[in-house]
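Q: What structure does this chain adopt?
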Amino acid sequence: MGKVFPELDEPLRAWIAAQHVFFVATAPSGAEGHVNCSPKGLDAFRVLGPKTVAYVDYVGSGAETVAHVRQNGRIVVMFCAFEGAPRIVRLHGRGTIVEPSDAEFEALLAHFDPGPGLRSIVRIHVTRISDSCGFGVPLLRFEDDRPQLAAWAVRKQDGLASYQRDKNRSSIDGLPGLKWTQRDPELDD
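A:
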């Protein structure tokens, strides 16, 4: 194994679509700051073209990926086969954060069927596609998606904007997070 692919061909797209979880890693520029790695699921990932992918970014208690991608664009997405033949696929690239107020948001959203709590879409221009053996990844069985995020977002609906202003305004290193949280809420009313 250990192959580099020129683009996301049909067999690779099918394999990616069959995975239930993926991991996103980013880091701020420079030697300081925290590297971030986040697990994702909930049928949130789509291959949009031979070198373009995107995923729905749901509300969370931090904004590391958003802040890092806004700062420098660097991002890697990793898929692991937890069932079937062992395999790891990494998609390195340059990301863009697309928020609901951005012009291209609705066109991107049409590729997904998101649940409650969507805060942005992360679109990635893939610059390197590679796989490796995955022999050390354990075999695990998928049971189901967890319902807690959607239930929490529905319960929190009236306070979701306030929560995001508090938790998604900046990264743990102080980098700006979601654009709309940077505005004065008094001016939005």
